[in-house]
TrEMBL record, chain A:
Pfam families noted in UniProt: Sel_put
Organism: Streptomyces chryseus
Basic and acidic residues: compositionally biased ranges: 46-67
PANTHER family in alphabetical order: CYTOPLASMIC PROTEIN, CYTOPLASMIC PROTEIN-RELATED
Record region (Disordered): 41-67
Protein name (record): DUF466 domain-containing protein
InterPro entries: Sel_put
TrEMBL record, chain B:
Protein name in UniProt: Carbon starvation protein A
Annotated InterPro entries: CstA, CstA_N
Source organism of the structure: Streptomyces chryseus
Membrane topology label: Multi-pass membrane protein
Keyword annotations from UniProtKB, A to Z: Cell membrane, Membrane, Transmembrane, Transmembrane helix, Transport
Region (Disordered): 717-739
Annotated TM spans: 21-41, 47-66, 107-126, 132-152, 172-197, 203-223, 235-254, 269-289, 301-318, 338-359, 380-407, 479-500, 526-544, 556-580, 587-607, 654-673
Subcellular location: Cell membrane
Family from the record: Belongs to the peptide transporter carbon starvation (CstA) (TC 2.A.114) family.
Domain of life: Bacteria
Stretches assigned to the CstA N-terminal domain: 48-605
Length: 67, 739
């Protein structure tokens, strides 16, 4: 196993964890907003994370987990 | 309504190659041998390896053949049809998510304490009945329900089960489904909270470490809100480290002068639980719920992985017999009633759990990238949960059966000293010496393990047995025991919080029909009132469960099981109706057969709980017996005084009425669904489906974890990387793929 392999594996694990925890949600949001209009106004990360928890506040059924 | 048309890979590649025939033949053979060993061994101890082989062999075959059949022949998943995630992509809640990520999400959402509790309780009938139901049930019922619900919800832009019931069956069935969900939520929360109270009572170690999770979560909440928004991974790592510290320091506290402060009676814990439940559900999401969710997901996935590893390395032997006498006599101390129907309602999560239909028709369908991936996510994740249930069964069966019964029988049976417990266990047909009972408690640094009902302590004991065999030996037993307790308590508390919020939301929605402001989540009095009602609801059953002389778990768990299986009946009825309405009558048996089984089980159990003359089983028979005692001025055991006699009478009446209500709800939903199906068969032209219109998909992505040769060729032709994405001739967009 070469160093490149290790780095690639580490990169994939990091990608998976970030996706799974929702840490990459902001990047995705920005990418999505900018995909049509590169100059589109976007929320800051702070605003975005707040709006996400506010949405959950408004409808707690989102993201509900089972017993 | 014409049958949906699509070309499927199943039609193209029907014949199996000689190589795959050989491989699958070998898998089938190993599975069959393992089943034979499990079923035929009598009087000797069987290695858990056989259980693992039987489970994994059966899952592999079911996934390869049955789920494929459902996906391609029954549902006719269409890789050319755009999913709501693709059509409605807003980068936030609707977005095409990588299949492996979504599998993780979905699994974390469906797996919780449920599959760890039910199998432990069902182990009183031996390992075989429960294991058969977990494996056969998941293959033919549970995973099918999850997958088909996910499919139909995806076709409807991620509509919830309740909405689908209202749209496709009618307002009557829809309303019944709504009431069912609410009632189930209350019972579910009460039973889960009871599991925790029973595990934490008189345990300063446990109480301290669980208590510490609150400040840890608050810290994480502030960190994510103020210090470094959105940095979930780093805060979770800090959180888990603090959590491990909390477990270790629990041991120090238990030996210090603070021990008495943290030694709580069950009644006191109930009060704390209720206060916590109320506060947690009115506090902002970011402060407590969101960080707790991260913490419990990390712990859940990590611990389940560790447990699987431990089981495979240690390969313990099972001391519990394959089938105990309680399977037929129905006189088991953990829960009353015989194998049919009670094993099938005791084990819900892991085999067939109605609650999953809420997840399969909520968040997940909005994130599915391709319809072809529904098989891996819906069916695959449920098979994984079933495997968790099998591991829970193993943990319960590797501890000494005498100890198992001493832990899991109500106080009324085991008494309150090791001598009395040892005698009681002998009367049940097993044996354990008082010294062995005392030693078992000492090993895990608990005052006593007697009558620690609810499954969590048994599971923790089994897990500490497995882990300490791998790492640390006997010296680590206490740590692993409290680690397991903490792990279960953590996500039960998260469920209590989240469930109370969902219940409150539903209640606010219903009350909004009467008085408008209730619907606004920002109207504080409405929030507080609805929260108080929900917390009061589960708090009542929790209080009752702790003080019931007949044993709370013994009384309430069947009710919880019936409720959960009722929800499964609603989900399967919706699925069957949709199969019939969408022109798939020929394949309706795929969900109709599990539905028929589930209804038979649930209604038989309800019938026995309501009408049985056996005072151990029938709620009203219990009521009559204790009422007669009160009238005659006698105190009947296990009640110790007149107050307890009255408690029994009230509880039995409430439980019996609730049971009857559940049975009526099932019948209503079924009758309404039956009416709609008949109408659809008689007059196919009249059918109105609420499916979202067909839009051609531009996304290309593999269906399963590993891309097939054909899929790879397709990806290359479309000009996208191995993770899939939009076809190159169109504008590229973020699809959640790695850079």
């Amino acid at each position: 196993m070469t160093l490149t392999d290790v780095r690639r594996a580490a990169g994939r694990i990091r990608w998976y964890v970030r996706e799974l925890t929702g840490e990459s949600a902001y990047d995705r949001y920005v990418a999505h907003a900018r995909s049509r209009d590169p100059g589109a106004p976007v929320m800051t990360r702070r605003q975005f994370e707040r709006s996400r928890t506010d949405a959950r506040e408004a409808d707690p059924r989102e993201g509900f987990r089972c017993c | 309504m014409p049958e949906p048309q699509s070309t499927t890979p199943a039609q193209r590649q029907r014949a199996l190659s000689p190589k795959s025939i050989a491989i699958w033949g070998a898998v089938a053979l190993v599975g069959a041998i393992a089943w034979a060993v499990l079923a035929l061994s009598r009087g000797e101890e069987v290695s858990a390896a056989w259980m693992l082989a039987a489970a994994l062999g059966s899952y592999a075959i079911a996934y390869r053949f049955y789920s494929r059949f459902i996906a391609h022949r029954v549902l006719k998943v269409d890789k050319n049809r755009a999913t709501p995630a693709e059509r409605l992509d807003n980068g936030v809640d609707f977005h095409p998510t990588d299949r492996r990520v979504l599998f993780g999400h979905h699994f974390a959402a469906i797996a919780g304490a449920g599959p760890l509790v039910g199998p432990v309780l069902a182990a009183q009938m031996g390992y075989l009945p429960g294991t058969i139901w977990i494996i056969v049930g998941v293959i033919l019922a549970g995973a099918v329900q999850d997958m088909v619900t996910l499919f139909f919800s995806t076709r409807r832009d991620g509509r919830s089960l309740g909405q689908m019931a209202r749209d496709e069956i009618g307002p009557f069935g829809g309303a019944a489904a709504l009431v069912a969900v609410f009632a189930i939520m209350i019972i579910l929360l009460a039973v889960l909270a009871l599991v925790i109270v029973n595990a934490l009572a008189h345990s300063p170690w446990g109480v301290f470490s669980i208590g510490m999770t609150i400040p840890i979560a608050l810290f994480m909440g502030v960190y994510l809100r103020v210090l470094r928004p959105g940095r979930v991974s780093e805060v979770s790592v800090i959180g888990v480290a603090l959590l491990l510290l909390a477990i270790v320091s629990g041991g120090w506290v238990a030996e210090s002068s603070w021990a008495d402060t943290f030694t709580l009676e069950p009644g006191t814990l109930v009060v704390w639980m209720i206060v916590y439940g109320f506060l947690a559900s009115v506090l902002p999401v970011w402060l407590l719920l969101a960080p707790r969710d991260y913490l419990s997901t990390f712990m859940k996935v990590g611990t389940i992985g560790l447990l699987a590893l431990g089981v495979f390395i240690a390969l313990p032997t099972m001391k519990m017999p394959a089938v105990t006498d309680f399977a037929t006599s129905g006189t088991g101390p953990v829960f009353a009633g015989s194998m049919f129907p009670f094993v099938f309602i005791t084990i819900a999560c892991g085999a067939l759990s109605g609650f999953h239909s809420l997840v399969s028709s909520g968040t997940t369908p909005k994130m599915v990238q391709k319809e072809t991936q529904i098989r891996m996510i819906g069916y695959g994740a449920m098979l994984t949960e079933s495997f968790v249930a099998v591991m829970a069964m193993i943990t319960a069966c590797i501890i000494d059966p005498g100890l198992y019964f001493a832990i899991n029988s109500p106080v009324g049976v085991v008494g309150d000293s090791v001598q009395a417990a040892s005698e009681a266990v002998t009367n049940l047909g097993f044996s354990i010496s008082p010294e062995a009972l005392a030693q078992a408690a000492k090993d895990v640094e608990e005052q006593s393990l007697l009558s620690r009902t609810g499954g969590a302590p048994t599971f923790a004991l089994g897990m500490s047995e497995i882990f300490s065999a791998v790492v640390g030996g006997t010296a680590m037993k206490a740590f692993w025991y409290h680690f397991a307790i903490m792990f279960e308590a953590l996500f039960i508390l998260t469920t209590v919080d989240a469930g109370t919020r969902v219940g409150r939301f539903m209640l606010q929605d219903m009350l909004g029909n009467v008085y408008k402001p209730f619907r606004q989540v920002s109207w504080k009095p409405g929030v507080w009132f609805a929260s108080a009602v929900v917390v009061g609801g589960w708090g009542y059953f929790l209080w009752v469960g702790v003080h019931d002389p007949l044993g709370g778990i013994n009384q309430l768990f069947p009710l919880f099981g019936i409720a959960n299986q009722l929800l499964a009946a609603v989900a399967l009825a919706v699925c069957t109706t949709l199969l019939v309405k969408s022109g798939r009558l020929k394949w309706a048996w795929v969900t109709a057969v599990p539905l028929a089984w589930d209804v038979a089980v649930t209604l038989t159990a309800s019938w026995q709980k309501i009408f049985s003359d056996d005072v151990k089983v029938g709620f009203f028979a219990q009521r009559d017996k204790y009422q007669a005692g009160i009238d005659a001025g006698e105190v009947l055991p296990p009640a110790k005084n007149m107050d307890q006699m009255h408690t029994v009478v009230t509880n039995s009446t409430v439980d019996g009425v609730l049971c009857a209500l559940f049975a009526v709800l099932i019948v209503v939903v079924l009758a309404d669904a039956g009416r709609v199906c008949l109408k659809a068969i008689r007059d196919p032209e009249s059918v109105k489906l609420h499916e979202a219109p067909y839009v051609e998909s531009r996304l290309v992505a593999p269906a399963s974890i590993i891309a097939t040769k054909e899929e790879k060729a397709e990806l290359v032709a479309a000009g996208v990387g191995p993770e899939g994405g939009n076809r190159k001739e169109t504008a590229p967009a973020g699809t959640g793929t790695p850079e």
